[in-house]
Amino acid sequence: MMRARNIAIEVEAERADGRRERVRLGATVHEPATDMPGGGTTAARSGTAIVYLHGGGLLWGERDDLPACYIGQILERGHVLICLDYPLAPSVTAAGIADAVVCALRNLHDEVLPRLGCTRYVLFGRSAGAYLALIAAARLSAQAARDHISPPAAVWDFYGYPALSPELAGAPCGRYAKLPAVDDATVRRIVASEGGTIPTSGPATTRFALYIHARQTGRWGTLLGVGADGAGAPALYANDLAALPPLFIAASTGDEDVPYGISKRLARAVPGSRLYTAYYLEHDFDRDTARPEGRAAYAQALDLLDDVSGDGASGCLTA
Question: What is the pTM of this model?
């Protein structure tokens, strides 16, 4: 049995034009049910919260897109799952989105996790959400001692990337060239329809066209406020990668959105990281829940948490 409830977290976000405003981010909290029919119980609560960030190229996507079977795998291990919204481009740049995510995570760390009985947390993202999880993990790890905040105990990167490189965000993607063209007028119409508000949720029916346009034209970086040379986008460098907490990576060799080589290089750069490889499948290979690769990837990601000791300071909430 799954128990879920919605909460809201208020953060300050900087618009692409430099104006700052308060934004309410929604979050769905899934807690493992301890009472079972007939008087039985599930596994004891682990004291770990897994914070999930959805994909969508920072342009679209919704926090509650994680298939129920994977939610079930997480809850069966006694973990709490928190699915978090974040501001979307082009209203907010990639840098502004990352800042807002870190602010929201600080709020979760200080206010929400203690109420849930969680003493450590994991950052989990898919695609662009994995990019945000990696950036946030590096920042929180670097600031832990100074700001008295606990770093994440681990990071789950499902087909993400550590940087919005020109090769990734500044070049057309062949997969999307096969789709009907999305022109500039359509992009302007979608953005104008939002009435000047900062969107924090982008259903495919209204916003997927932004991503298609971005990848067809090679203007993905432009829509995210990233320069042609990658300037303006948060990125992880060698020292950041070396200091990351335990990292689990899942990716497919058939990925046309984020080439598999990006995940393989990341795995080599982060000491002790674990890489799960799905062969010849699409970018979001876990979307097809009928295939075994998705469940296997989540099982291995959860096994990593079993192997991460909670005895040390890393990932344990501090007073």
Answer: 0.95
